[in-house]
Protein 1
Amino acid sequence: MRLLILFFILTCSLFAEPELKPLKGFEAKSYSSSWTIGHGVWKVEEGILSGLELEESNHSAGTGINHPCSHGVISLEFNLAKAEFVQLVMDELKGKKDHRFKLRIYKTGDMKINAGSKRNKTMKAMGPMVNITNFNSDAWHKLKVVYKGQSIKAYIDGKLINKVTAPKDFARPKNRMSLNVKGFALFKNFLYTPYE
């Protein structure tokens, strides 16, 4: 019986998600220089990061941080406020950006996941768009993405919304995380922990 209990504990620990920790460089009181601004206006006030797309720009507002993120768990809270969509991107910076992952959430509650390599032309939508039931675009929501190898799971407010298997290119190294906004949106509590 003791051996069975020990086996159960060891098995659970092997498949348990790592503990989430605040991403270095994303502080509650200031917008760290670790994060670079690609487009738009980004600022932090009272622990909340806001992203605003400029009207004269033809590109959504974007900010990112260079940080190893090949396999792990990302968690953040977001509020679409006046945005058409918010997007989380993970890619490999090697010469040109090579997007490995894009998760986009629209104000309608639709979620779209693209994964793969632009460079190797395997970047594609992972199945049809999925709708988040009873989604309120004016409220705060918690997004959690769990990914390892080719497996990607996306949760909203603790509920599994989408689970996909990405192309093999997705499992290659990734070293940059970015946020994009079409319009104006808010973010807080950005956490990331790698799988060992």
Note: The chain has one domain: 21-194.
Protein 2
Amino acid sequence: MNHPYQFREATISDIEILKELYKETVLTINIKDYSLEEVRDWASCGENIPHWIELINNLYFIIALNETNQAIGFASLRKDGYLHSMFVHAKFQQKGVATFLLSEIEKYAINHQIEIITSEVSLTAKSFFESKGYYIQYEQKKTGKPIMSHQLRHEKTFEIETFAYMSLFNDHFKLITRSCSMSQMFG
């Protein structure tokens, strides 16, 4: 798939940009599926700088960049296959950024022999993940600070044969799936 996006791994110097992107996305996009109280609570979780440092240092954490090198989204994956976060800037929704980020995360998972990707997915992102072969394992209510919100646990399994196939054909592959779910960042 041709796209105008690039990615790079996040560094500590990106924290302010990531915090703003995260906050704006949650307050602007997730308000469609959550109450004002829920999104304000959720957005406030992004103020924890030590937590950002921990995520950047310990996860595969990538930033999507547009043609002017502006950060327009990010995603992070733990070594055990848990997709910890994926957010796209409010102004870049429906432009293929999430597909690009998820594709890069899945390539990383395959190249590192991670067979299953799981995540808690917001109601807002549910249809996107399902369109990418992720299946709901179960629905859960997750408590942030004082607020409880709905999330959906998704999973996608990569067959062992997929690893070699992916390595040979890079962008031209079909993943064999079983089940999947994704959600909010600081849950």
Note: The first strand starts at residue 6 and ends at 9.
Protein 3
Amino acid sequence: MGRTRGFTLIELLVVITIIAVLMAILLPSLNRARDQGKGITCRNNLKQIGLALTLYAEDNSGKVPRNGGVWIVKFMPYIGGQGDQDHNYRRMGVYNCPKYPDKEQTLDYVINSWKDGASEYIGFSPISDFRQPSLKIFLADNENGSWRAIIREDTGLGSSRGEFDVWNAQHLATGPDGQRRVARAHHRDGCNGVFLDGHSDWVQAEKMTERMWRPE
């Protein structure tokens, strides 16, 4: 009866090397595919928020909230919530971007509070203030820099959350560290956003302009 021949050390090393090379080739592609999947989920979430935006405006004389975390609780009845109660909003998965690194963050998006570039708009305003709503951003990915606040508590999403309002050029994706509020490279080299006509899309950071936020 013949002896079964096993692998030699050299053969094992060759196999291990081939596996390591294949992993080095495939892993970047797998990571890119995973990131693309998260980006698609984020845009789909924003699309649902965009629908809530449209329905809310229809029920409120065309007006929408323009600052703080008010939009989160006001839109809840339009995305499956039982009412605009602050303590329920964390259960709404559409409010979370799957790529935001701190999973305790409850405000993954920043809101258009642009007034004149020097001060912010506070309160509710008609969508008709924006002549081309399909070109105007309503929400965009929140930057995850060390200077950005993390809102972990279940309450307190009122208009006092001014650090999530975008109303100055330094808050945009091209703004400096310490001031930037819109994510610069959250999804590839840009961010996702929902526009005032309700559609969602990806915006390259370098192509984001003040005009995309200004009421005009």
Note: The chain has a mean pLDDT of 86.
Protein 4
Amino acid sequence: MDAASGQFRISSGKKPAFFIVIIRFLVCNKSVRKTGKTANADAMIGRFEITLRVEPEDIDMLGHVSNIVYLRWIQDVAIAHWGTLAPQGEQEKLVWVVRRHEIDYKRPAMPGDTVIVRTWIGEAVRMAFDRHTEILRASDGRLLAQARTVWCPIDRKTGKPTDVSPEIRALFSVSE
């Protein structure tokens, strides 16, 4: 996070280029639209979102944002959320890897669009932590994609799955 601007810089996955995203944390925002697969919104502690502009390199041969870009956005918002909420000591001990992605593509993001990528935590069972994500077009709030991702905590030193502290479990899971 850039202390001067309060904005995160997240690598776009390409050479050393970076893009800036705007980050907001919304706690129990009742005005946020609920969608089909995210019906468990009432159990959420809070939502975290970043706003991104569609870049020319995000566009595929069909003229809209590539599916792999949606996947990158889902990972970027999760990493930004972790970096914002988790204590520094825990960030130094743990890294997260994806065990599973489920993505429902609803509408395409197009060149020139700005999107809101919103995430919130779900249940955690042992070393499987659910995270939900919505991608919305900023101009009209239309749902473009929704996802459920299962993340697993990894010990940075051993490279193996590990349990997390009660503090991290409380921050990154909800009881359903």
Note: The longest strand covers residues 143-155.
